[in-house]
Amino acid sequence: MVALSMADGYARLTGKPQAVIVHVDVGTQGLGAAVHNASCGRAPVLIFAGLSPYTIEGEMRGSRTEYIHWIQDVPDQKQIVSQYCRYSGEIKSGKNVKQIVNRALQFATSDPKGPVYLVGAREVMEEDIEPYQLNQSVWGPVSPAALPRSGVELIASELAAAKQPLIIAGYSGRKAQAVTDLVALANNFKGIRVLDTGGSDMCFPANHPGWLGLRYPGHDVVRTADLILVIDCDVPWVPTQFKPSESARIIHIDVDPLKQQIPVFYIHSMATFRADSSTALKQINDYVAAQGSLQKFIGSKENIIMGQRRDEEYLKRRQEIADLAVVPEGGDGASLNINYLMAQVRQGVPTDTIWAIEAVTNTHWVADQVSATLPQSWINCGGGGLGWSGGGALGIKLASDVQHGGPGKGKFVCQVVGDGTFLFSVPGSVYWIARRYGIPILTIVLNNKGWNAPRRSMLLVHPEGDGSRATNEDLNISFAPTPDYAGIATAAAGGEVWGGRAATVAELTEKLPEAIQSVLSGKSAVLEAQLDGTTGKYVESHKG
User: How far apart are CA 406 and CA 260, in angstroms?
Assistant: First the structure.
């Protein structure tokens, strides 16, 4: 889980494929939800697993030599993960091993990117072969697809005609240029507002007046928009909660518009295009710049008025976010809430911090208070497999260090994780690795004393059922009494991790700077934020 999550985080920041090696069927199963996350998050990773030897009597070098070879053998090991992978295959001979690996990497790095899985039995790994070389220049990924000219013309004309245009994005921020081009488009068509669905990346900066923030399963503007442009997004809205109007004109651009790994998916779009989002946005901007009629619209009073209205709505939204982040009533002794906490964290860390987010039910508030503005500064768990962010944050930090010249030279990385999700991340491994390899990250654990996601899911179906009146203890989703989250990390790292907790404004004021300074000095830090009081939560005893 941790190794693949690290590879996932590294690959998502750099775009370069990473490799993970595991042991036969049990090691493959140990990957767990990380395979799901890499698939949904479009992370190019190659997983290689051994196979139990297939000969018994010593017929070949590599034949079975241990008891475990009989019980760690299954009829088709690839089937454990193949439905999550872009490609799965077996190395059957050393004579074409390079071709097989290159084929797998082509799948991993071509859109939609994702994990690939290779297996090889020990007899094959022991095979003697003559060294050989391949021309690696012919093994690159498939080039990005572009919009047809008719599609470019259609989208541009629809944007000019729309009174309430909405763009919904999910993965387009993977490429920094796509963020720049989307901003340029929104600068031209001043009625455009952009909703980020948190698929994986920060797609639109929070300092632009068209910014609506990160929301899933949708936003009220979905219901009122007359034009919706869906760009590289798996779930633009959940129809049972948010649904476009019958008259809305919908256009869909995606590298995988049919969502071939999702059994049930459809958008009632008037036009659907298989295209790379960055390429498509540049095409649209170039076309707009060359068309006199569109330039006339951009300078029109109508467009300017739409921009003024958008500016007013944006300022109101920013004020609402700021109002939520004020010091809680009660001053220094007041309990922490998510908005105040994250506003303080955002103010305390470096401005170019990279955020690794797995905050589950708190994600919307975290996103609002962080208000990311830099491309590739916000990386969300690509899927729903809890536990990604521990290894993910380590991989992101490693990648950033490499990008900026070596260990300790990369950007500050902050992981924000729910309490239950923290436990899923295998913290014993995460913080041992952080110490062993010198990978300093700041972890903020959001302790709200249990699993809140199951309650929310239940209430969406049975808002007035018996469960709505049940306590978290009744529903068996309470963690009370909660673990010592910081203590788990500290123990795993042999004491070489700063660990602390804060439950009040005063404690946060004291502990947060210490945690940040620890990371800046090269040692990871875990700050447990106890939200809404300490009842049922770990409180350190001070016995003499």
Answer: 39
pTM of the model: 0.96
What are φ and ψ of residue 33, in 5° steps? Answer: -70, -15
Distance CA 15, CA 221 (A): 32
Q: Assess if residue 291 is contained within a domain.
A: yes
Among 91, 5, 79, which residue's Cα sits nearest to residue 50?
91
Distances (CA, A) of 353 to 315, 374, 424: 24, 9, 24
Asked if pLDDT for residue 400 goes beyond 60, the answer is yes
> What pLDDT does residue 542 have?
53
Angstrom distance (rounded) from CA 263 to CA 241: 20
On whether the CB atoms of residues 112 and 145 are closer than 8 A, the answer is no
Kindly report the length of the chain.
544
Residue 284: give the domain boundaries: 149-320
283 and 185 assigned to the same domain: yes
Helix axes 301-324, 363-370, angle to 10 degrees: 110
Residue 543 has pLDDT above 90, yes or no: no
**% the chain with pLDDT above 70:** 99
- Counting Cα atoms < 13 Å in the Cβ hemisphere of 158 gives 22
Q: Which residue in 45, 46, 43, 47 sits closest to 13, CA to CA?
A: 43
* Nearest C-alpha neighbor of 446 from the set 359, 328, 536: 359
Residue 273's identity, in one-letter code, is: F
Could you tell me the CATH number of the domain that includes residue 8?
3.40.50.970
382: closest CA among 235, 280, 228?
A: 235
Give ∠ CA 17-19-23 in degrees, rounded to 5. Answer: 155
8 Å CB contact between 235 and 215: no
How do residues 204-247 score in pLDDT, each as one tens digit? 999 999 999 999 889 999 999 999 999 999 999 999 999 999 99
DSSP classification of residue 325: T
482, 447 Cβ separation under 8 angstroms:
yes
State how far the Cα of 448 lies from the Cα of 457, in Å rounded to an integer: 17
Q: Please name the residue ranges forming H helices in 15-67.
A: 24-30, 33-40
Which residues, at least 6 apart from 130, have a Cβ–Cβ distance to it below 8 Å? none
Q: 3-state DSSP call for residue 51?
A: strand
What's the mean pLDDT in 453-481?
A: 88
Same domain membership, residue 74 and residue 176 = no
Residues 315 and 343 in one domain: no
